[in-house]
Amino acid sequence: MIYETRIYRCLPGRLPALLKRFETITLKIWEKHGIRQAGFFTTLVGESNQELTYMLAWESLAERDKKWTAFQSDPEWIAARAKTEEDGQIVGKYTGMKDAYKSLIEALSHGGIANKVKVNLDWIESEVFENEDPAPFLEHVNGILVPGGFGQRGAAAARRALVLVRRV
Q: What does the alpha-carbon distance between residue 162 and residue 129 come to, in Å, rounded to a whole number?
């Protein structure tokens, strides 16, 4: 048995919307795909009070890949997710939480030291590449790094960012 822990960090005030989506939509679609939950947790006090932590149980990595891929591409899920985010995104990206990229930050810093250059990092939310003209954000940069781990929406934004950077 494999247990996968997932943490959704909500934008301020959006945790109730995420919990409602799980209760009324997500769990039903998971049941359709045979996705088993092992637990759900929220924090009442502290910095993590806008997070939903949950665990999923899998028999194998192959089962996880098959069922999670089916869930993510389910037209019912895609439509429901879009509908629940009509009044604003629920789950934020991680640029506000530098610890999520700690190893990347350290690698870039050490690469700068080795090459005797100062590395200045400018964090840009992926939504910039979806919702507005990103050119002003890119005019002053000498390079761009798009970390892995993007979902379906994030991957499209990452591709757009890379295309735009080549033009700037």
A: 10
Rounded alpha-carbon distances, angstroms, from residue 162 to 124, 126, 127, 130, 136: 13, 11, 14, 13, 15
pLDDT at 125: 65
CA distance 96 to 149: 16
CB 64, CB 16: distance < 8 Å: no
Q: At the topology level of CATH, where does 2-84 sit?
A: Alpha-Beta Plaits (3.30.70)
For residues 56, 61, 67 and 71, what is the CA-based torsion angle, rounded to 10 degrees?
A: 70
Q: Which residues of the chain form CATH 3.30.70.100?
A: 2-84
| Residues paired with residue 5 on neighbouring β-strands, in sequence order | 55
Name the strand (E) or helix (H) holding 67.
helix 61-72
> What pLDDT digit, counting tens, does each position of 43-102 carry?
887 776 778 888 999 999 899 989 999 998 999 998 988 888 776 555 555 555 556 667
Q: What are phi and psi of 46, to 5 degrees?
A: 110, 180
Q: What is the mean pLDDT of residues 137-153?
A: 65
Task: Report pLDDT for 32.
Answer: 96
Tally Cβ neighbours within 10 Å of residue 113.
11
d(CA 12, CA 25): 21
